[in-house]
Amino acid sequence: MSRRGRALAFVLAALIAATAAAAIADGYGASVARGYGELRAVVVARTALEAGREIDPRRVASALELRRIPARFVPPGALGDLAAAIGLVPRLAIPAGSYLLASQLRPPRVAGARPPGLGRGRQPVEIAVSGAEALLVAGVQPVGSRVDVVVTSEPDGAGAGRTYVAAAAVPLLALAPDAEMAPEGAVAATLGLTRRQALRLIAAESFARRITLLRRG
């Protein structure tokens, strides 16, 4: 066979191999979808992200990537769009290969600025809350929004526990899902509270069965 013929044969073999590989990949993706359900895009850290360093557009391109995984395996609050991470800052270091969660990110702090949404007569107070994952399901950063703090007390004897709004429309300043001080299944939320609200909620931590945040709007 001539040199030209060998070259054409090599190109043809390469095209056949590439087509076969694509077919295998498509078949594998379809097999995964059939076995585990619908696939969903999630943002994954391609490289480690340092705490406190803003994610600018160039870092998004080099440090993040989109992957498609079965929806049942997507953690609550996982980002599904690379653009959603632009301009935000990791609260803690995020290892390479980790899913990027809304609760892991915050807006950049401005030197000398007051915490966002902290009005007169309010101060930052950290309390343990349950069910914060519900705030993250939409993949939208809840920090900076206003929330109602709902307390459910322990049952009194054979009766049912009482549920009531202990603080209404208070600013949510921070959410730390790995706080060591929080009971199992809870996270630490920093809220902008008046002194009266702070005392009421600090007391509720000692007797309440559950303290929950409900996002306004």
Summarize the SSE layout with pairings:
Blueprint: H1 3-36, E1 39-45, H2 57-63, E2 64-70, E3 89-90, E4 105-106, E5 123-130, E6 146-153, E7 163-176, E8 186-193, H3 195-207, E9 208-215
Antiparallel strand pairs: 1-2, 3-4, 5-8, 6-7, 6-9, 7-8
Total strands: 9
Radius of gyration: 24 Å
Report the structural category: alpha+beta
**Percent range for helical residues?**
10-25%
Strand content: 25-35%
Question: Can you tell me the number of structural domains?
Answer: 2
Low-confidence stretches: 178-183
Largest sheet: number of strands, sense, barrel closure: 5 strands, antiparallel
Tally of individual helices? 3
* Widest sheet, order of strands: 5-8-7-6-9
SSE series: HEHEEEEEEEHE
Rounded mean pLDDT is 77
Shape: globular
Distance between the termini: 74 Å
